[in-house]
Amino acid sequence: MEKKTNKLTNFLYIKKLQRNINKGKSKSEKIKDKDLALYIVKTDREGYLKIPKKWQDDKDILLATIECNAYQAQYFSKDILDDNEFSVDAIKKSPSYYQFLSDRLHEDKDLLLLAYDNPKNRASFCINYASETLKKDRELTKKILSKDGISLEHVDEEFKNDKELVLIAINENAMSLQYASPKLQNDKTVVLAAVKKNGNVYEFLPKTMKQNKEVACTAFKKANDKYWVYKSMPLLLQTDKDILDIYIKEKPGNLEHITEIPSNKNYALDLIKKDHRYFKYVSTDAYDKDFLSDVMIVNPKTMPYVKALTNDYFCEYIAQDAFKIYNEKLNKKNEKERAKTNENSQNLKKDNNTANNTQDKDGNIDNSENEME
Predict the structure, then answer these.
(1) How far apart are CA 155 and CA 347, in angstroms?
(2) Cα angle vertex 361, ends 356, 365, to 5°?
(3) In sequence order, which ranges of 1-120 are alpha helices (DSSP H)?
(4) How buried is 170 (Cβ within 10 angstroms: 0-12 exposed, 13-18 middle, 19+ buried)?
(5) pTM: predicted TM-score of the whole model, two decimal places
(6) What angle, 0 to 180 degrees and rounded to 10, lies between the N-to-C axes of helices 34-43 and 59-68?
């Protein structure tokens, strides 16, 4: 019971102490207990400067500080920042610590690779702080890009134009394509490798690659968010039947996002013919009396939708005219079908008469032969 009481009292004291420090009512020198110092650096992102100097080189305190906010390492002593053994533990806690290392440790290849070893906590910019020798090391860069493709943004400019290295980066993270050289961003092989990995890369492609239908279709199939990919496409591809088929097949409701349907009414009619519900997704810009009458012809189930437009202020007269044209087209269609039916009936009668005449003729021949016998 006494231990629990002490812990509670200690906790409340720490909280009070921290509030006072934050308010400027207490000086850091008053903190004498290591546990109090640890609590401060763990819970306060700027706590390192609020603890006594005697604790500022304590490795437990330093590691807790880095875990809370690695950028406080800028206040560490030079000896700490040049300590190889401590740096290993610190980088494991937070790879961002790498940038504060001494120049001597920035020559260490192993420490740089260590900064890229934790997939959940990476600092892609670390290579920026490496020595010039390490930055020019192609094999080292290759290893880094295989661990973190986005680091392509920070590697030496020469390597951004290296096709092998760029493909390695893309394989790890397709979004790294945006950091490749302009030449490789326009290389179809490289671009296809990226969009096959992640279709949403399409948004960042240069204009020439966005206009390539193979690239667009591949990206569209692989994209998690097809809406933004579709909106990134040039107008010519936005109205392409193959692109629209992929988009609508994923979710029929996507048709409402297709802004270019008015310039492709025939395609809209093809869709409505398959399912009358597509009609409500067609932009009102497409509405005219001929289009609406054709809609009812290809799929009579759309008639209630068109009829509802007669009560709409903007579409009232268009819809009324559409019904007139619809009736005219329907009458012509029925007349054609009746004419065709009559023609078929007449042809059938002719065929029957011809068959009967042939039979009569055959019967007469048979009778004459019997008489001769």
Answers:
(1) 82
(2) 145
(3) 2-23, 34-43, 59-68, 78-81, 84-93, 109-114
(4) buried
(5) 0.68
(6) 20
Half-sphere exposure of 144 (CA within 13 A, CB side): 32
Question: Which tokens belong to 16?
Answer: 């009070």
Determine phi and psi for 211, rounding to 5 degrees: -80, -10
The residue length of the chain stands at 373
How many Cα atoms within 13 Å fall on the side-chain side of residue 315? 21
Per-residue pLDDT of the chain (373 residues; tens, 9 = 90+): 444 444 445 555 566 665 665 555 454 445 557 888 899 999 999 999 988 888 999 999 999 999 999 999 999 999 999 999 999 999 999 999 999 999 999 999 999 999 999 877 778 999 999 999 999 999 999 999 999 999 999 999 999 999 999 999 999 999 999 999 999 999 999 999 999 999 999 999 999 999 999 999 999 889 888 888 888 898 888 878 788 778 877 776 676 676 555 456 787 888 888 888 888 777 777 788 888 899 998 999 999 989 898 888 888 888 899 888 888 888 887 788 787 777 777 777 776 666 666 655 555 544 444 443 3
**Within its chain, how far is the Cα of 187 from the centroid?**
21
Tokens of 158: 């020469």
Kindly list the distances between the CA atom of residue 264 and the CA atoms of 163, 259, 334, in Å, as whole numbers in the listed order: 40, 10, 28
- In order of 80, 94, 115, 136, 150, the CA distances from 125 in angstroms are 22, 13, 10, 15, 9
* Residue whose C-alpha is closest to residue 145's, from 120, 118, 113, 101: 113
Kindly state the greatest CA–CA separation across the chain.
146
d(CA 63, CA 82): 15
